[in-house]
Every structure is written in C-alpha cells, then in structure tokens.
Amino acid sequence: MMTRQSIGIDNFTLALVTTVTTATLLPASGLMARFFDGATVFAIALLFFLHGAKLSREAMIAGASHWRLHLTVVISTFMLFPLLGFALKPLLLPLVTPELYLGVLFVCALPATVQSAIAFTSIARGNVPAAICSASASSFIGIFLTPVLVGILMGSQLPAAGNGDTLHAIGKIIVQLLLPFIAGQVARGWIGGWVDRNKGLLKFVDQGSILLVVYVAFSAAVLQGLWHQVPLHSLAGLLVVNAVLLTLVLLSTRYAARLQGFDRADEITTVFCGSKKSLASGVPMAKVLFAGHAVGVIVLPLMLFHQMQLMVCAVLAQKYAARREGIGSTAPTETAVAPKHI
Length: 342
Prior knowledge:
Order of helices and strands: HHHHHHHHHHHHHHH
Number of helices: 15
Largest sheet: none
Number of strands: 0
Oligomer: single chain
CATH architecture: Up-down Bundle
Radius of gyration: 19 Å
C-alpha cells in the first residue's frame, strides 16, 4: 500500500506548504522583514557550513574513477536542462506567466541535489559511492556555473540579477555560500565525527534554514502581489511544464547510460543524479542572485519541481529495486521511503 511518505510527501513537504501559507496570510514586513532578512544571511551560511562538514572526502574519492558517469551527469545538469528550458520556450511559455517561465529557467541552471540523489540511488541499489561523488561535485560546480547560466538564459529579461553582472553575482555566491562550505570542509577534521553522529539533529538546522528563506522570499512576493500575478491556470500550467521537463531528462539520462554500456547500477546513478535539481542550493542562490526582485515567483517553480521529482523518483526507485531483486512488484515500504531532504 502506498503511503504519504512512499510517494515523496514527507513532513518537510508539509512544512514547506505551511510556510508558504503563513507567508501568504502573515507576511513579514517593516522591522520584522529586516530582522528575518538578516537572519537568513546567517542561516544560509550555517547551511553551507554544515554541508561542507557533512561531506566525506573519502567517499568522493571512492567514486571519482567513474569519469564517464560523472561527465554524463554534469552534461545533463548544466547543459541538457538549460537547452531544454530554452528550446521548449514556444511550448512552455503559453502555459505559464513570463515570470514563472524565468523561474523554470532558474531551475534549469541549478546544480543537482546531494541528499535525495544519494538516497534514491541507495534505495534502487545503484552505485552509491559514484552518486556521492557526482552529486557533491555538481553542487560544488554549481556555485560557479549557476550564476553564469542564469546570466545566459535570462539575459536582460530579469534586470538586476543580483543588481550586478555575472562576475559580481559569482563573487556574492563565493562569499555567502562557497566560503562557509570550505570552512565546513576544513572543520570536518574536528567536528566531522560529531556531525556524522548527529545527522538527525542537524536535519532540523538544514531544513529550518530553507524554511526561513522560503518564508522571507514569499513574504516579500506576497506584499508585491504574488498571488495576483500567478493565476490558477498558470499554476496548473507550471505543473505540466515541470512534468514535461522531468520526463524528458529522465528518459535522456536513462538512454545516455545505456548507449554508453553502463551496467544497471551505474544507470541508476546516472538517472537519479542527472535528473535532480537542488532546493537546498536553489533557494539560497535565488536570494543572492535576485536581491531586490520578487524571489518568491522565481523559487515557486523550483518548489513544485522539487516535490514532483521526489514523488516520481520514489516510485522509480522502487521499480529499479524490484528488478534488482528479481521480483515483479515493489520493494518493502520501509525501504522505499523518499528522502526528507532537498
């Protein structure tokens, strides 16, 4: 029997919905908005510090030899996604507002997830060391490449993408995201054991940071008339856009793996690492890159894509696991619980 968790609707998803609802009904403004805005700077730095502290260099090295797999994932994440987002514009733009389409392009420019890509690879019995290496490398590369892709894809459509040029945006990303990440890597030698033992506790810091940024972003967007700018038919169209994008990438990564003769474990890793987009990186990046803009409109497509990829990949991981076990139904419910991360 399919449970709420087994199709990807977990407590964090419910918390996201609650946060957006709260921001809609009780948006932060004035002094409170400035307080929360300052708090998000600290929360984002802490989030990336913990990401650095949690990342095992040994695990990355163990999977680094699969260079064709990693290259395929990088091409899917930073080339295939943007090309699809741009090439499908005539099909996608009539379904959503121009602002939401910019949000879709932002999704296309983002790095892959780390936690959920690894979790789904594990559930499906794929190559976990390679997934750790590939997803982590994607997250790191995205710090530099995502601002460049945003500049290329959006161009002059979004004035003041961070109120500056691409180099300035990259500089802000480095200061606010990369430096805390490096500090976490350096500190891992002292706090790595504690971090590994307290992943359950740190999960709340991780998710709390995202919820805080989402609340601030949607509060500002609501005060600027977000829900008047996004009609219901555009939200429905956005679901279709995300579904088309996700389906094309899932099929492309699967066939790319098979064309290269990857075994089933490496195919699984390619599919789950090459089709993901990171909410954990995307929301903080949006806040940095689109300062002064209605960030809530930009991250709305990402939030919906995040949930859709969890739900679809939860089912897909069960099917892969069933094939690996030589059975024709589904894997046990406990094994197939989707990750509660981004």
